[in-house]
Amino acid sequence: MNIIREPRLMQRESDGLRAAGKRIALVPTMGALHAGHEALIREAAARADAVVVSVFVNPAQFGPAEDLSRYPRDLERDTAVAAAAGASHVFAPGVQAMYPVGYQTYVTVGDVALPLEGAARPGHFRGVATVVAKLLNITRPHVSVFGQKDAQQVVVLRRMVADLDFGVEFVVVPTVREEDGLALSSRNAYLSPAERAQAPVLYRALRHAGDLVRGGERRGAALADAVAGEIARGSTAAVEYVAVTDAATLEPLATLAGGRRVLVSIAARFGSTRLIDNILLDV
Ligand code: AMP
To answer: Least buried of 132, 180, 208, 273, by fewest C-beta within 10 Å?
Structure first.
């Protein structure tokens, strides 16, 4: 396992790999690796000769009141998990290496970054787009791999990669879940036992939405209300939003039209822990 901490050294390594005819995959992460990340790394390993897992808790994507300082960090463990899943390189830069004194360039994606998480977390996607643009420039991959768990992030980054001509293949891996349906997330560790017991309600509510659509429901608002109702019945969580949108544009859908892919997404707080989840439905 090759652990690299400096952007210039990573670029040199990637240039060497490319010169040797190797295909490079990038899996961007914030560490605290779990089985969701492992699925991304395995997918990357199936598509490339060298798999770079970046581990960087990106301050630019956290709001001032968010959990940046308490975000779990354990590079030694992450390196072992990444290696076991098929990574060849871990790129783990320090904050100063990524955002040195005088840093002032940011990437802003348009409409798709505005609703949902973009509305709830001002500046979040500016931080995400900026760091992923930098990681793509530093690691120069042929393919990059992301998780459907962060559905809007997928839409935003796909847009950025196309708009800025990154010329990198964009692969999305389905959400990996616990047996009870809870989507794996580093933030699940913050849940109290009582909150953890309630948290599977999110995926139950999303599957309920799928049942309703298969049963003929086509009204977006009715669907959103039903999802929120399921969450209220099954937990004490505070729902931040339930959104029924076009999966590609993230525009809210008053009516679900046939042939369209629909994204139902949720953000909800269990105590102080904010969880997101989503489901894609084909109408
Ligand atoms: P993070 O470390 O939370 O920034 O996530 C790094 C990557 O892993 C992102 O592309 C996430 O969408 C993806 N990811 C996180 N959790 C899961 C999961 N449960 N299933 C699939 N992908 C995930």
So the answer is: 180
| pLDDT given for residue 243 in this prediction | 98
Distance CA 257, CA 199 (A): 31
Q: Could you tell me which of 48, 40, 54 has the C-alpha nearest to residue 2?
A: 54
> How many angstroms is it from 40 CA to the middle of ligand 1?
8
Check pocket membership of 36 for ligand 1, CB cut-off 6 A.
yes
pLDDT confidence tier of residue 67, bands split at 50, 70 and 90: confident
Q: Which residues pair with 252 in a beta bridge?
A: 245
142 catalytic per annotation: no
The verdict on 140 and 274 lying in the same domain is no
Residue 197 has which token pair?
Answer: 């017991």
Is the minimum distance from the CB of 30 to ligand 1 under 6 angstroms?
yes
Say yes or no to pLDDT of 88 above 90: yes
Same domain for 250 and 116? no
pTM for the full predicted model:
0.98
